[in-house]
Amino acid sequence: MLKGVEFSVWDAQSILKTSVCEVTEKRVMEKGVPLENGLRDPRMGPFSGRCVTCNLFSGACPGHFGHFVLCEHVYHISWVTTVVHWLKCICVSCGELLIKQDSVPPDVPNNRRMYFYIKNLHTKCPNCSLRQPKYTFNKDNCTITRDGKLYPTTDVLEHLLLLSESDVCGMEMSHPKNMLLSILPIPGTNVRPPIINDGVVRGEDDLTYRLLQIIRANDKLVKMKAGNRPAHIITNARKGLQNTVTGYLNHNKLGGPRRRASTREYASLASKLTKKEGRIRGNLMGKRCDYTARTVITGDPYLGMHEVGVPISVADKLTVPVKVTDYNRRALQTMLHDDNTSIKFVIRPNGSRVDLSFVHRKSIQLDVGYTVERSLKDGDIVLFNRQPSLHKMSLMAHQVRVLPYSTFRMNLSCTTPYNADCK
């Protein structure tokens, strides 16, 4: 029996175990062919045909993760605040937890417990009596400071590694060392499909361009360190790598002058997931469907409680499928040949759809098994919904009454279940 779902930070070992290939190429294509170990490696998912990893066709393949190895650890911009909280909870000298023993965390999700812990800390380590420094996050430079001075990423990692696994397990939380990225998971190609026009690839998805920026910034930092360049040059290259990773994860959190003022900026993972058009609200929590119409509602006391008034423009656009049988074939054939017919489409038994606005309707002979789609008329049953759909009575069936003007009409006695407020 399923009791719950638990989430944890995706560590480097798990990323490597899931990955099907390592991305090392700074180019995507060569002579129209995806490069091996590139961002369009066929092992991460097919563009067309079968997948070389799971042997499924492109429409059924879920996509497969690759990975890219960073030359240095960088911050995950969404977890950097949690990293600062962990630094405050761990003694910089001996690694002792500074959380007071008598503090009992409230019954909240694990990701919110840190806000409670940082308010119940010892200012001096109970083990070594060292007074702890102050840690802050600089949004403009995307760096962590210790007592006002830069705290390098390597030192931050060493500080976090002082925390023992037993302490983390006792707190039922992920180890904070995994919140610094050393291996970047690369999503499959179905998450970032290329731009195609007339069957030809014209460009790449924004996420692919973001990943290319990360690969180039990483390669630049490797060359700077190998060439023994001055410290400030290497520091700038390191900031460049951090900013490209931050821009890939959430470009809205790029601070200071690095945040572009341009109206056209590459999208990030956060922008693909959040807001009304994102994956969560746009695709998972709500669906867009056919055979629907939307407009303002107004009250009409002359309608029955079982009726809904539908504008003529909506009734003419929406269609109802009617199956052709021996009993209605002659009536539907007569309706089809009428000049003012309400039939809009004819669907043959093989599934082909005929739009009657482009063909001579009298040349079509209906037979049993055909389906015709006609406009809405009085007496048709429709589903009427008003969002937010808070209970099952927010979606009920009504009979159609085709009326003039441009609003849906309903009896005022039906407003309560819909929580409608007609004005």
Search tags:
423 residues; alpha+beta; five-stranded mixed β-sheet; 19% strand; elongated
How many beta strands in the DSSP annotation?
A: 18
- Share of residues in helices: 25-40%
Order of H and E elements: HEEEHHEEEHHEEEHHHHEEHEHEEEEEEH
Major pleated sheet: 5 strands, mixed
Give the overall shape.
elongated
Q: Summarize model confidence as the mean pLDDT.
A: 88
* Class of secondary structure makeup: alpha+beta
Low-confidence stretches: none
Could you describe the 3D structure shown?
The chain has 423 residues and is an alpha+beta fold. 26% of the residues lie in helices and 19% in strands. The protein has 12 helices and 18 strands. The chain has helices spanning 12-18, 80-89, 110-117, 153-161, 165-171, 206-226, 231-249, 269-273, 279-284, 312-317, 329-337, 415-418; strands at residues 29-30, 33-34, 66-75, 135-138, 143-146, 149-151, 180-186, 195-197, 200-203, 297-299, 307-311, 319-323, 343-347, 353-355, 371-375, 381-385, 395-403, 408-410. It has a 5-stranded mixed beta sheet with strand order 10-18-11-17-16. Strands 12-15-13-14 form a 4-stranded antiparallel beta sheet. The radius of gyration is 31 Å and the shape is elongated. The mean pLDDT is 88.
